[in-house]
Amino acid sequence: MTYAKFADTLAPLHPLLAERWSPRSFDPTHHLDDAVLRPLLEAARWAPSANNSQPWRFLVTRRGEDAFTRLHATLNPGNQVWADAASALLLVAARTVDDTGGPRPFALYDTGQAVAHLVIQAQAHGLATHQMGGFDATAARAAFGLDGDLQPVVVLAVGRADAAARLPAPLAAREEAPRVRQPLDALLLSPARVETG
Question: Mean of the per-residue pLDDT values for the chain?
Fold first, then answer.
């Protein structure tokens, strides 16, 4: 059982976009096997990137594994409450320096695109995802021995949504609340008019 939370859009969107949202209620019995995980990672692999640099890296942990427990421990307490029911937690990192030691200025942008591709592919497989910025990046780096060129960006919970999953009251209310966004006009910039003379 899942909540249906369709986006109230001004123009028709593909259902994978209109129906995507970020639940916290995951089915604690669901297992994410390789046959389902591989297409998600493959979708990320084929995301666009500056100069085809592909700066993203994914550390995959599954519920029940030691690595899952270690990654879960880096989450903020508010995320720990529910994320332990996810089938998998993925640590997403960006390689921000190239092979010559020079900066990759678009690494974070490109990594975000890879995550977006993964999220939509998960949606196509009937899976739910929830991206978390609420984690201790320094602790995650230490827990998994990430080198200095890898910047932890986000932790991604993946699994099957389950509206029957029990959440604490404040989180349960957020789970049932409608999806909202700012008006489109609020997101558009106006071109500046430059006076010449």
Answer: 92
